[in-house]
Design a protein that fits this description.
Layout lengths: L2 E3 L2 E2 L3 E4 L1 H10 L7 E5 L4 E10 L4 E11 L5 E5 L5 H14 L3 E6 L10 H14 L7 E2 L3 E2 L11 E5 L7 E2 L9 E5 L7 H9 L3 E4 L7 H17 L3
Parallel strand pairs: 1-4, 7-8, 7-13, 8-9, 8-10, 11-13, 11-14, 12-14
Antiparallel strand pairs: 2-3, 3-6, 4-5, 5-6
């Protein structure tokens, strides 16, 4: 069953946007009466039936609630990698694994100073549809590290940096509570950035003895967070 992110509607009926309507009618060759899976990105997945379909418009009626996805509690602040493909791979996997928010970070050692959020949103939506997710994460604009304090940050705050020897093990994080984890660029966070994070209440996080690539560290954290959040408290 094909899965879509619906932008307009409720628990009874709704509409797909022009792009998805075109894809459903012209590419997938769906017709009135066919069943589809839809979500509004709020965690609920519905089974629906197409009522009217055209090149620019698809109207559906909701038949049943199939499942509810628990809202993720993990926010990841991550510096976009020099290779845009690697960062986009992380975004895709973050949607599949389930995160609450992705915050692209602009750091002193960042090799990528520009990030096209619109492209990231398209990748996220494709991953959302492919994996039949119910919850769509938030993707922030590129944010300077020192401006993170302007956001509503959770109490659990961690920074994965090589600049400190006293670190908390990943298993010590309370994944049943909201948390924000920062992952720096290929050249790591600067000493000034680490000092700023410490003043903001960030604790140092230990990801193990190996030096992981930026996107690998982020996916590792997302996967562990998903696993731990599903375990009984």
């Amino acid at each position: 069953m094909n899965h879509f992110l619906a932008r307009e509607g409720n628990a009874s009926e709704g509409f797909l946007n022009e792009s998805d309507s075109h894809h459903a009618s012209r590419v997938l060759r769906l017709n009135s009466g066919d069943r589809i899976s839809i979500s509004y990105g709020d965690g609920i997945v519905y089974e629906a039936e197409i009522e009217n379909i055209a090149k620019k418009s698809l109207q559906f009626k909701v038949l049943d609630e199939r499942r509810r996805q628990k809202a993720p509690l993990l926010q990841i602040g991550i510096a976009p990698t020099k290779s845009n493909d690697r960062f986009e791979w992380f975004i895709e996997k973050a949607v599949e694994l389930g995160v609450q928010r992705i915050i692209p970070l602009l750091c002193e050692h960042s090799e990528r100073k520009v990030y096209k959020r619109d492209r990231g949103l398209r990748i996220m939506e494709a991953a959302f549809k492919q994996s039949h997710k119910g919850f769509m994460p938030e993707l922030s604009e590129l944010t300077e590290l020192k401006k993170l304090d302007e956001l509503n940050l959770p109490e659990q705050r961690y920074i994965a940096s090589l600049n400190n020897s006293e670190r908390i093990a990943l298993r010590a994080i309370k994944f049943h509570e909201p948390q924000l984890i920062l992952i720096g660029p290929e050249g790591d966070f600067s000493a000034k950035e680490v000092a700023w994070a410490e003043k903001q209440g960030f604790k140092h996080l230990d990801l193990g003895p190996e030096v992981l690539r930026t996107e690998t560290a982020a996916v590792q954290i997302a996967a562990i967070a998903q696993y731990e959040a599903q375990r009984p408290e």
